[in-house]
Design brief:
The structure is a single chain. With 487 residues, the chain is an alpha+beta fold. It contains 18 helices and 11 strands. Strand 10 (463-472) and strand 11 form a beta hairpin.
């Protein structure tokens, strides 16, 4: 059990948001600059921070958690909050929302025709998950993944969110940046470009390269990802560069990240937030904090609809702190907030770094997939290719059924299946009966999977809804799994 003193924890959460505002304000004026910079500090007037979508979206996620409870937070519920409360349509934000409005649910909406799925939109908004799940990196990473799926699908942008969320959550009990990096890497696939970029950056540090040499090395290494601008592998590496080369010094770390260029408000804000968690308010320079104050200025929230947005970092902190015990309890995290002394095992970081459950989960994800739960059955439906259909064309569909009875006992069950198709559509390879055993004789879990081919007739509509109905034997629940194919 990890024990966190409540006031120490609150101090770190507050410093996280102050650090986020400092970085967003200092880095904001230099966003999109591709050259190596020579920033010395603020160039904005004193008195308040710049608005920043990096922080704004997290205010909506806090609202979702408060209204729905932590067990109900997933990519589909967050997707609904996206459409209702977040106006911007730029880049992956707009792609994810337009896809949802066409009927493609999360997380498939983050995969479909999304040129920005490897970009920065998700890892820049991980602090709310890390702060509501302090010292529980696996929990924070899983929430960040559900968040990221909506506009990044199964892309490097989602891996980046898992990496940063795990690192920031662990920062509540660890100040060694190398150990935090190891924890972040444990939560993403080793073969990902995200992991490669961080490992390469650490090598640069160990070879005693200068900040600019390391930045140029990463820029060249990832030159093949689009045009390099706004891509997660490079920009997360720039944030980590700030943390490594800055060696715990807030100002030095911040400027090192900003001077790498690219998405400077995001890299700097993540550096500031992470250092805030690591060192608390005492680790933030008083003059830099005074420059931006306590205010939160929003730009990306529909405040005319969502009227409960926190107006200050103080208010945001109190609301996040209020949710943390619920999030920890709902996820059975071995973390306790109390009035007593903070206490944890000396090898807690090594334990975190050995846990690869999140990375294994990320490897299991299929693009163009959506997940639905009905009673004791979870069904995941995906198309092998993009969910497009032409007249007389075909789409390959994969469905996996998971027996949730394994949570509370070995309860086999059976399913009766039926496809409900648009006029003129047919299904090939149809299976009408599925047996869902919990374990075989060797104790292995075997989730049944089926593959079919959906064929269109001579006419297709703009949107064509296919539905898989499954009846759970001896259970009142009937599940309906939709699949939208775009004509």
């Amino acid at each position: 059990m990890i024990k966190l003193n409540r006031e120490d924890y609150r101090n770190k959460v507050y410093a996280c948001w102050i650090g986020k505002n400092i970085g967003g304000t200092m880095g904001g004026p230099f966003e999109k600059k591709r050259e190596y910079l020579d920033v010395k500090g603020y160039v904005t007037p004193a008195g308040e921070p710049l608005p920043n979508d990096d922080l704004d979206l997290q205010l909506v996620w806090l609202h979702a958690t408060e209204k729905l409870g932590p067990k109900a937070i997933n990519c589909q519920t967050l997707g609904d909050f996206w459409v209702r409360f977040i106006p911007p349509h730029w880049n992956e934000y707009g792609i994810g929302k337009v896809n949802m409005r066409m009927g493609i649910p999360a997380p498939a909406c983050g995969d479909y025709k999304n040129l920005w799925k490897h970009s920065n939109g998700a890892w820049i908004r991980t602090e709310v998950w890390a702060c509501m799940a302090p010292a529980a990196p696996e929990v924070a990473a899983r929430y960040a993944i559900e968040d990221a799926k909506v506009d990044h699908g199964v892309g490097e942008g989602t891996y980046a969110a898992a990496f940063v969320a795990a690192m920031q959550s662990a920062a509540f009990v660890e100040k060694d940046i190398r150990k935090l990096i190891a924890i972040g890497l444990a939560n993403i696939p080793t073969e990902s470009r995200m992991a490669d970029s961080i490992r390469a950056l650490v090598d640069c540090y160990d070879q005693h390269m200068s900040e600019r040499e390391a930045r140029d090395f990463i820029l060249e290494r990832n030159a093949d990802i689009g045009d390099g601008w706004f891509q997660a592998p490079s920009n997360v590496a720039y944030a980590v560069l700030g943390l490594l080369w800055g060696e715990g010094d807030f100002k030095r770390s911040m400027l090192a990240a900003i001077n790498c260029g690219d998405d400077t408000d995001c890299t700097a804000a993540t550096v500031g937030a992470t250092l805030g968690i690591m060192y608390g308010k005492e680790g933030i320079p008083a003059d830099w904090q005074a420059h931006i104050g306590d205010t939160i200025i929003t730009i990306s929230v529909a405040t005319g609809v969502l009227t409960t947005v926190p107006k200050t970092c103080t208010e945001l902190t109190e609301r996040v702190v209020r949710q943390a015990p619920h999030v920890l309890f709902a996820n059975a995290a071995d973390v306790e907030l109390s009035d007593g002394e903070s206490d944890w095992a000396a090898d807690v970081s090594e334990t975190f770094a050995k846990n690869t459950a999140v990375a294994d989960y990320l490897r299991s994800l299929r693009p163009y997939a959506a997940e639905y739960t009905f009673g004791p059955v979870r069904a995941t439906i995906s198309t092998v290719e993009a969910p497009d259909i032409k007249p007389m064309g075909e789409v390959h569909v994969h469905v996996r059924f998971e027996n949730l009875c394994r949570i509370y006992g070995n309860c086999p069950t059976n399913l009766r299946l039926r496809w409900l198709l648009p006029e003129g559509f047919t299904v090939e390879g149809e299976t009408r009966f599925v047996r869902m055993a919990y374990k075989n004789m060797l104790g292995d879990v075997r989730d049944p999977e089926i593959d079919v081919v959906i064929r269109a007739g001579e006419r297709v509509d703009v949107t064509n809804r296919v539905v898989l109905e499954f009846e759970i034997q001896d259970h009142a629940t009937v599940g309906y799994v939709p699949l939208v194919l775009l004509g």
